[in-house]
Structures are given as C-alpha cells and as structure tokens.
Write a structure and sequence with these properties.
This protein has about 180 residues and is mainly alpha-helical. The chain has one domain. About 60% of the residues lie in helices and about 10% in strands. The protein has a 3-stranded antiparallel sheet with strand order 1-2-3. α2 packs antiparallel against α3 and α3 runs antiparallel to α4. The radius of gyration is 26 Å and the shape is elongated.
Length: about 180
C-alpha cells in the first residue's frame, strides 16, 4: 500500500505542477492579450520566437481542427490509462515514469481547456513551427522520453537475457570424470 501511495504521490505532484504551469501561462495569455495579438519583448526576436494568442480545437500543432470532442474523450482515456499503469512501472525505469508524468500533466492541462472553453489556448510561436503551449510540450517531450525509456529498458532486458542464457565455461574434466587418468 505504501508503494502505491508513494507512486501516486510522485505522479500527481509532478503532473500537478505541470498542470499549474500550463494553466497559469494560458491564463496570462488570455488576460493580457487579445486573440491573434503578438507579444515579443524585442523586435529582433519576433521573427524567431514570440507569444501569439491562438485557439486550437484539434490536436497538437493544429492538426485535426474541429475534433475537440474526440480529443476530450481521448485525453480522458489516456489519463486513466496512465493513472492505472504508473504504479506498475518499476522504479528503476525512471525515464518511463518521467514520461508518464509529463504526458499526464499535458493531457490534463489541455483537457481543462477543452472542457472549460471548448478549445485549447496556444501561444508559443517559434519560427514557422505551429503555435503550441506548455501542455503540448509536455506531451511531445513525454513521448520522446517514453520511446527512449522503452528502448533502454528493452536493451537492458536483452543484455540480461543474453548473460543469463550464456553457457558457463567448461569445467576441468579431470576433476569431474572419474575415469580420467590419474597419476599413479
């Protein structure tokens, strides 16, 4: 029972901090900018990075616009799966655990927007890359870390399997064969 409490505390505190950061930054954008407005502290930086108040009813990077209900249900299912699966991940697989924390925080951060406003607030605009937010970043980075974590886990398991299936070196037959020629 203590393991589950510790595991869930790690998951919910980590995801909670990410949700807070996501919602706080979106609040700042909603209350300080008009939809479509650009803010950049320095003119020379504007072509490369800026804050742009934008709405998104689709997935990350503006894909699948108009599918807000589908992504709401998907976020609920993914969040439930992460909450169920998290305690089953071994502590030594910390990259996988980190990835799940990031993904849960991102999924719930965008879910809050979808349920509350019917759309997600995006505001980070870098170059010509689609506009995104903190939650999108958490999900994307979480997927990358999850892939790395699974790859490293599989490599570790393959190495352990190879070591355990390796045959032991042959023993000195003169010590084990009773018919061996002994000095007379």
């Amino acid at each position: 029972m203590k393991k589950y409490l510790r595991d869930y505390a790690l998951l919910f505190v980590s995801a909670g901090l990410l949700i807070f950061l996501d919602q706080w930054t979106k609040y700042l954008v909603r209350t300080r900018l008009v939809f479509g407005e650009i803010w950049s502290p320095w003119d020379w930086l504007t072509p490369y990075a800026r804050v742009l108040y934008y709405h998104n009813t689709g997935a990350a990077f503006g894909l699948f616009q108009g599918f807000n209900a589908v992504f709401t249900i998907l976020a609920i299912l993914v969040s439930a799966a992460i909450i169920y699966y998290f305690p089953q991940v071994a502590g030594k697989d910390w990259l996988i655990r980190l990835a799940l924390c990031l993904q849960l925080g991102g999924a719930i951060g965008n879910l809050i927007d979808r349920v509350t406003f019917g759309q997600v607030v995006d505001f980070i605009s870098v170059g010509t890359f689609p506009v995104f937010n903190v939650a999108d970043s958490c999900i994307t980075v979480g997927v990358g870390i999850l892939l790395l974590g699974v790859w490293l886990k599989e490599a570790r398991e393959k190495k352990a399997a190879a070591l355990s299936s390796a045959e032991p070196p042959p023993a000195d037959e003169s010590l084990t064969d009773p018919d061996s020629d002994r000095s007379e």
